[in-house]
Design brief:
InterPro entries: Bact_response_regulator, CheY-like_superfamily, Sig_transdc_resp-reg_receiver. The protein is 60% helix and 11% strand.
């Protein structure tokens, strides 16, 4: 069973949170509410999120300040943030949103179809990254198990079969990532395209590590890429 991605919805108005849930329910992911910046930061301490929808105008800690805290934390700094605001103060206000680390800035009332499409892109990228981390972790675990206490033909056969299986799994992820990149190129969403390019670089690193482990690749195998 594929685990659902979590989407953090941050707004001090319950009716706005309800509207967001109605719009995003069709994505069939886990929607998590937060009614303040402080509550959002607390949720981010324990859970991983694919994307954050963050209201700008909130009492106490506003959206800009909340985003600044999110970007300062190593655990959360790479989570995409989409700012939502009911007030349009012009280019300067929008620039402040991007400077705070937002990948997008949407004024209310927004088109539900557009918002859902933007969120779905980041959910899909998040799922691809999760698949990549799982493949890297499986490779490390299986290689460690395969190399401990085995000698002779059995020791040579098991890693070879494992590498073939992992290569096939990685190929499936690479194919999906390539299709997603083509789709994003057509939409011209710069933030999403950049995120997809980062994913492709990770996939390339993992493919090189697998290729280096193939028999006959030599003893100078590249280290496995980081799992983050």
């Amino acid at each position: 069973m594929v685990q659902k991605a979590k989407i953090l919805l941050v707004d001090d108005r319950p009716e706005n949170l309800l509207a967001l849930e109605a719009i995003l329910s069709a994505l069939d992911q886990t929607l998590v509410r937060a009614s303040s910046g402080e509550e959002a930061l607390k949720a981010l301490l324990t859970d991983d999120f694919a994307v954050i929808l963050l209201d700008v105008q909130m009492p106490g800690m506003d959206g800009f300040e909340t985003a600044a805290h999110i970007k300062r934390r190593e655990r959360t700094r790479d989570i995409p943030i989409i700012f939502l605001t009911a007030i349009n103060h012009g280019p300067h206000h929008t620039f402040r949103g991007y400077a705070a680390g937002a990948v997008d800035y949407i004024s209310k009332p927004f088109d539900p179809w557009v918002l859902r499409a933007k969120v779905s892109v980041f959910v899909e990228l998040y799922m691809k990254n999760c698949q990549l981390r799982e493949q890297a972790a499986l490779l490390r675990l299986q290689l460690e198990n395969g190399q401990s206490g085995r000698t002779g033909a059995a020791a040579a056969q098991e890693p070879a079969g494992l590498l073939a299986e992992l290569s096939a799994r990685l190929a499936a992820v690479e194919e999906q990532a390539e299709a997603l990149t083509k789709q994003l190129d057509e939409s011209a969403d710069a933030a999403a395209v950049a995120t997809a390019a980062h994913l492709e670089r990770k996939l390339t690193g993992l493919r090189r590590a697998l290729d280096a482990l193939e028999p006959g690749a030599g003893s100078g195998a590249s280290p496995l890429p980081a799992s983050s």
